[in-house]
Amino acid sequence: MPVKPLTEAELRLAELIWDAQPLPSGELVRRCEEAFGWKKSTTYTMLKKLCSCGVARNEEAVVTARMSREEYHRRQGEAVIQEGFEGSLPRFLTAFMRGRGLSRREAEELKALIDRWEEAGDE
């Protein structure tokens, strides 16, 4: 299921939550004021946005993530490939690498990833 892309401010708040969860909401307000200069109302407005899109939750004044950082970024990557490249990972990689090339290390990492996938028998 796709997740809407987060704004820069929303992503900064999500990063703070991912790094410090579980977090009492009062502590989140304090950290946001310290890190971003946000007022309490701004923090709660931004938190409400993260909760409404399924990235975070605020239950009984304790803030936690509903999805991991890795899950969020995976879903964002899938959306880019689906929307921009008709779901084709090879087309995405070709466009991404055009004019850039791969280092030997990157090529080895990709080959190892493909080898692991083939050994697992995934399709």
TrEMBL record:
> What are the record keywords, sorted?
DNA-binding, Transcription, Transcription regulation
InterPro entries registered for this protein in UniProt: BlaI_family, WH-like_DNA-bd_sf, WH_DNA-bd_sf
Keyword DNA-binding carried by entry? yes
> Which Gene3D superfamilies did the record assign?
Penicillinase repressor domain, Winged helix-like DNA-binding domain superfamily/Winged helix DNA-binding domain
Enumerate the Pfam families for this protein. Answer: Penicillinase_R
Q: Name one GO biological process term.
A: negative regulation of DNA-templated transcription
Coiled-coil residues are none
Question: What GO annotations for molecular function exist for this entry?
Answer: DNA binding
**Which family is this protein grouped under?**
Belongs to the BlaI transcriptional regulatory family.
Know the name of this protein? BlaI/MecI/CopY family transcriptional regulator
Organism from which the protein derives: Anaerofilum hominis
